[in-house]
Specification:
The protein is of the alpha/beta class. It contains 8 helices and 7 strands; from the N terminus they run E-H-E-H-H-E-H-H-E-H-H-E-E-E-H. Helices cover 37% and strands 19% of the residues. The longest helix has 12 residues. The model has no long low-confidence stretch (mean pLDDT 92).
């Protein structure tokens, strides 16, 4: 009889509401979702309008095994209040990738789409994973917005130096999925 490796899954019975915003880094979501599910998490994806330019709901549904949300006003939206239902269902809200625009809207308290309403409505931990051009990331306003959000308890998973779409090697590349996974495990302890 073979001995099985019965490593405990660190995110078993955890629900992660994964918000994707408009960044080319959204194409890496499949690997991240598979890693999260591999640790036992349920992953519910929410797309901003601009995120749909980079990745489709169909792809996310295939890798998450869950309905993908992107519209407040769809006829397929359940009768309950979707943004508060998802906010309460989450054990953590993960914004990966987090664009400069979305970070700025959160820092101002805006709630003009499903994704920002979920973040504003949740009382669970929120983890931001920025991904953008180095000039945007290091801009004083972006840095101020991130500090403001960290001050109220949001977690930041810093971008890394890597290949950016503009061709440079610079800060702003999204953290790899294993680093994000380890950070979420720490935030949920």
């Amino acid at each position: 009889m073979k001995r099985q490796n019965l490593k405990a899954k660190s995110l078993l019975h955890k629900t992660i509401v994964h918000i994707l915003t408009g960044s080319i880094a959204a194409y890496k979501a499949g690997d991240l979702i598979q890693d999260l599910r591999g640790e036992g998490a349920r992953v519910i994806c929410v797309l901003t309008e601009s995120a749909k330019q980079f990745i489709t709901p169909l792809v996310l549904r295939a890798v998450s095994g869950e309905k993908v949300h992107h519209d407040f006003f769809s006829s397929e939206t359940p009768y309950d209040v979707l943004h508060t239902s998802l906010a309460e269902e989450a054990d953590i809200v993960l914004v990966a990738p987090a664009s400069a625009d979305f970070i700025a809207r959160l820092a101002c308290g805006m709630a003009n789409d499903l994704a920002s309403c979920i973040v504003l409505a949740t009382r669970r931990p929120v983890a931001l994973v920025p991904a953008m051009n180095d000039r945007m990331y290091t801009h004083p306003l972006t840095q101020e917005n991130l500090k403001k959000l960290q001050k109220i308890g949001y977690h930041l998973i810093e971008p890394v130096k890597g290949h950016l779409v503009c061709g440079k090697e610079a800060i702003g590349h999204i953290s790899d999925s294993q680093s994000i996974l380890r950070s979420l495990q720490n935030f949920l302890q």
